Amino acid sequence: MKKKELEVIGKRLLPMLPGFSVKGDLIFAVPIGHTLRAICFDQAVDPRAVYVEVFFQPLFVPSEVVYFNLGWRLGGQTHTWNVDRPNLVEELGDALRRGALPFLSRIRSPLDVAEVGESLGK
Fold first, then answer.
1. Distance between CA atoms of 20 and 31, rounded to whole angstroms?
2. How many whole angstroms separate alpha carbon 17 and alpha carbon 40?
3. End-to-end CA distance of the chain
4. 3-state secondary structure 24-89
5. How far is Cα 66 from Cα 56, in angstroms, rounded to an integer?
6. Phi-psi region of 39 (alpha: psi -120 to 50; beta: other; left: phi over 0)
7. Mean of the per-residue pLDDT values for the chain?
8. How far apart are CA 49 and CA 88, in angstroms?
9. Dihedral sign from CA coordinates of 83, 99, 119, 65
10. Is the distance from CB of 14 to CB of 22 less than 8 angstroms?
11. Strand 71-73 relative to strand 81-82, pairing
């Protein structure tokens, strides 16, 4: 699956995700400050399916890559989202509003990064 195709899906989700923007396979909260708060489409083995990663990455810790250490996979570790599913945008948008938005909205300061990161291990 091409990033451009995933970007189209991301753009269709934006009306349901206020305060977010999209670039390629990444949907992210704007403005980007000390922490990247994002949702990423990650390729699954099935070429027409993706994992949806909900994560944050402190930008005050130098890194040249985006990593998913601080977050979780929407729907569970093995759940994939078929991009050809007729109601994909509505179902995914609903799942993101219920799970991803409340999680990512908790991160407003560097202290929040530590507190939310610690809560992931519980």
1. 8
2. 14
3. 34
4. CCEEEECCCCCEEEEEEEEECCCCCEEEEEEEEEECCCCCCCCCCCCEEECCCCCCCEECCCCCHH
5. 9
6. beta
7. 92
8. 11
9. positive
10. yes
11. unpaired
Neighbours of 15 (CB within 10 A): 9
Buried b (16+ CB within 10 A) or exposed e, 40-68: bbeebeeeebbbbbbbbbbeeeeeeeeeb
Six-digit token string for 75: 């729907």
Is the CB of residue 35 less than 8 Å from the CB of residue 59?
yes
Cis peptide before 31 (omega within 30 of 0): yes
pTM for the full predicted model:
0.92
3-class DSSP assignment, residue 9: helix
CB atoms under 10 Å from CB of 4, counted, come to: 9
Which pLDDT tens digit goes with each residue over 46-85?
999 999 999 999 998 888 999 888 999 999 989 999 999 9
